[in-house]
């Protein structure tokens, strides 16, 4: 599995489970490279599979997440929710890759690959598919309001687990301050007050929303 940003940079923000091999009867199968992926809103992801079949010629290949009724699978390229954001790539060894750009949190779903041959009844899709989780970044300030001299922790939070223990870039009032998993201010002073946001190193263009840290003066 390879994940790239819109600019083409390799990304390690992929949370991988064991390879899923879905075997059908009589030589039908779909193999997914990964079972689960967690990645950032606004980035680009590749979902890969390969397939086998006993005979005939493949006439159609596509990915889907929706079905309207029995045998009515919605090709992701025809899904209005993905308009202009989906690309398919095939190779000569029956590999097939789905690329989704400008990811949204609403893209979080289980994606499955389907192929159709020219043989009677020659249709197949693979379970369980690939579970994609798309997360934004959120700054959590604990506690949100502090008094000078206390300790405060800022955490860059996600709704799923990004792989490879990413390093977070921290910003105060729009300017880079440090790179670390969490930001600790101990003891905190009034000069530490401000608007904080975070991004993942290598994806600095994908910022969290800003969170305000308020520091009150100690009582005299």
From TrEMBL:
<feature type="domain" description="Ig-like">
    <location>
        <begin position="128"/>
        <end position="214"/>
    </location>
</feature>
<protein>
    <recommendedName>
        <fullName>Ig-like domain-containing protein</fullName>
    </recommendedName>
</protein>
<keyword id="KW-0732">Signal</keyword>
<dbReference type="InterPro" id="IPR013783">
    <property type="entry name" value="Ig-like_fold"/>
</dbReference>
<dbReference type="Pfam" id="PF13895">
    <property type="entry name" value="Ig_2"/>
</dbReference>
<dbReference type="InterPro" id="IPR003598">
    <property type="entry name" value="Ig_sub2"/>
</dbReference>
<dbReference type="InterPro" id="IPR036179">
    <property type="entry name" value="Ig-like_dom_sf"/>
</dbReference>
<feature type="signal peptide">
    <location>
        <begin position="1"/>
        <end position="24"/>
    </location>
</feature>
<dbReference type="InterPro" id="IPR003599">
    <property type="entry name" value="Ig_sub"/>
</dbReference>
<dbReference type="InterPro" id="IPR007110">
    <property type="entry name" value="Ig-like_dom"/>
</dbReference>
């Amino acid at each position: 599995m390879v994940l790239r940003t819109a600019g083409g940079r390799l990304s390690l923000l992929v949370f991988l489970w064991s390879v899923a091999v879905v075997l059908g009867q009589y030589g039908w199968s779909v193999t997914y490279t990964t079972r689960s992926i967690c990645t950032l809103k606004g980035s680009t992801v590749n979902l890969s599979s390969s397939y086998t079949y006993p005979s005939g010629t493949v006439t159609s290949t596509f990915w889907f997440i929706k079905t309207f009724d029995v045998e009515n699978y919605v090709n992701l390229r025809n899904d209005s929710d993905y308009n202009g954001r989906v690309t398919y790539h095939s190779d000569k060894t029956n590999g097939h890759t789905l690329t989704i750009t400008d990811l949204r949190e609403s893209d979080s779903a289980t994606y499955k690959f389907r192929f159709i041959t020219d043989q009677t009844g020659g249709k197949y899709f693979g379970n369980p598919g690939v579970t994609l989780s798309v997360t934004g970044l959120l700054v959590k300030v604990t506690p949100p309001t502090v008094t000078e001299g206390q300790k405060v922790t800022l955490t860059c939070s996600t709704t799923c687990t990004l792989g490879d223990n990413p390093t977070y870039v921290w910003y105060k009032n729009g300017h880079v301050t440090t790179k670390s998993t969490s930001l600790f201010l101990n003891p905190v002073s009034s000069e530490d007050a401000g608007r904080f946001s975070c991004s993942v190193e290598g994806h600095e263009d994908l910022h969290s929303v800003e969170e305000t840290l308020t520091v009150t003066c100690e009582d005299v």
